[in-house]
Design goal:
Layout lengths: L7 H19 L2 H8 L13 H19 L10 H17 L4 H5 L10 H13 L4 H24 L7 H7 L4 H5 L1 H5 L2 H20 L7
Helix pairs in contact: 1-2, 1-3, 4-6, 4-7, 4-11, 6-7, 7-11
């Protein structure tokens, strides 16, 4: 292979592009090096291991989302709307990458790009009288819902489940059988419905705490 000078940004951009082609399981340092026309050890100058690369990939994924702006996250927007807006944007971003939730989940950001939206949300919740620890619990609960939803959504793969065949298999369990269309179709509507439930639950739990809400 020819010797080519590369930097962290090139490695990360290439990894994100390859992710959409081969998925996380196929995203090896060897495959990235081949795409960049370098020897695999050259990547270790920039990333000590694959997890370090995944951390950078997640950071860039978030940076790209933030660069496009998150509609609905403005200082004068109620915290409920900010929380909903952020999680909608998060889901959209994760779905734009193959195995996006797998890459993003558990990653440690390498920059501070995420701090602005977090600061804005915590500020809005503080203004509503919600204690910082409660605000963190609320935000991470909504985040966990979104991450789990997208992980399941992406895990189903591109082929839709045959809910009619499922209903036949579950013939002895009529309610479970009838639930198929609600479980495996209409992801957009189900995500929005679940997000409303999560936020309404947060409002209910924290209502009246230290005068909140």
């Amino acid at each position: 292979m020819a010797t080519t000078r590369i930097d962290r940004a090139q490695v990360t951009d290439t990894a994100l592009r390859l992710l959409n082609e081969v998925g996380l399981d196929g995203l090896t340092l060897r495959a990235i090096a081949k795409e960049l026309k370098v020897q695999a050890p050259a990547l270790y100058w920039h990333f000590k291991n694959k997890q370090a690369l995944l951390d950078e990939m997640a950071t860039v994924m978030y940076r790209r989302m933030a660069a496009d702006g998150v509609p609905g996250m403005t200082p004068d927007t109620p915290w409920q709307d900010q929380l909903a807006a952020f999680n909608r944007a998060l889901r959209s971003m994760l779905l734009s990458y193959r195995d996006g939730a797998k890459v993003y989940g558990g990653a440690r950001f390498t920059g501070t790009d995420h701090a602005g939206s977090l600061e804005a949300l915590l500020t809005a919740m503080a203004a509503a009288g919600i204690a910082p620890s409660d605000a963190v619990l609320a935000g991470t609960t909504a985040y966990a819902y979104t991450m789990g939803f997208v992980a399941e959504e992406q895990g189903m793969g591109p082929e839709p489940l045959d809910v009619d065949a499922r209903a036949v298999r579950l013939g002895d369990f009529p309610l479970a059988a009838a639930a198929g269309p609600d479980l495996f179709r209409g992801y957009e509507e189900r995500f929005e419905g679940g997000l409303r439930v999560v936020i309404a639950g947060i409002e209910t739990v924290f209502a009246g705490r230290d005068g909140a809400l």
